[in-house]
Amino acid sequence: MGRRSRLRCAHARPKHRARRILSCRRGGAAVEFALIMPLLLALFAGVTVFGICLGAAHNLRLIAAEAARASIAGVTDTERATLARNTVNRSLTAGAMFRPGSVDVEVGSDPTDADVYTVTVRLDATTLGLNAFSRLLPLVPDLMRSTVSVRRGGL
Questions:
Q1: Which has the least CB within 10 A, 26, 48, 65, 148?
Q2: Please, what's the b/e burial string for 87-125 (b: 16 or more CB within 10 A of its CB; e: otherwise)?
Q3: How far apart are CA 117 and CA 107, in angstroms?
Q4: Residue 19 banded pLDDT, cuts 50, 70, 90
């Protein structure tokens, strides 16, 4: 009786077998886990990808702002461009989350206002390594960019 009472779901008398099988709860947690786990993995992947994208956009904005602030000190457009590019390269080698070859810098005057100088930093987002999540989630854009404008003379 001891062993038979422990295995109540597996071995039942034929007339009570259907009732016992329907009332058996062994393995229910495994089934629930198998149903819920893909959703939890997709949620975790989404949070991870969103965090990386948000961090990349923030980092890109900081690099562009630093480059724009550094370009104020230049007297000519060539000197401003050199200062901005050097600042971006210094930021990338100082530990930014981007590889030095993945960021492109464009500097120049604003076409609508000659007193405004713009620094645009573009990132090839494929270098962030988010392609592994491409089957689970929508992909991030291949190109991220941030533009910061400063007035010549700093005011």
A1: 26
A2: bbeebbeeebebeeeebebebeeeeeeeeebbbbbbbeb
A3: 8
A4: low
Tally of CA atoms within 13 A in the half-sphere of 103 that contains its CB: 29
Tokens 């939890």, located at residue:
40
Digit-coded pLDDT (tens) for 77-118: 888 889 998 988 888 887 767 777 788 888 888 888 888 889
Structure tokens of 120? 């645009």
**Model pTM score:** 0.71
Q: Which two tokens stand for residue 100?
A: 């030095």
Specify the amino acid at residue 36: I
Residue 64 tokens read as: 């562009």
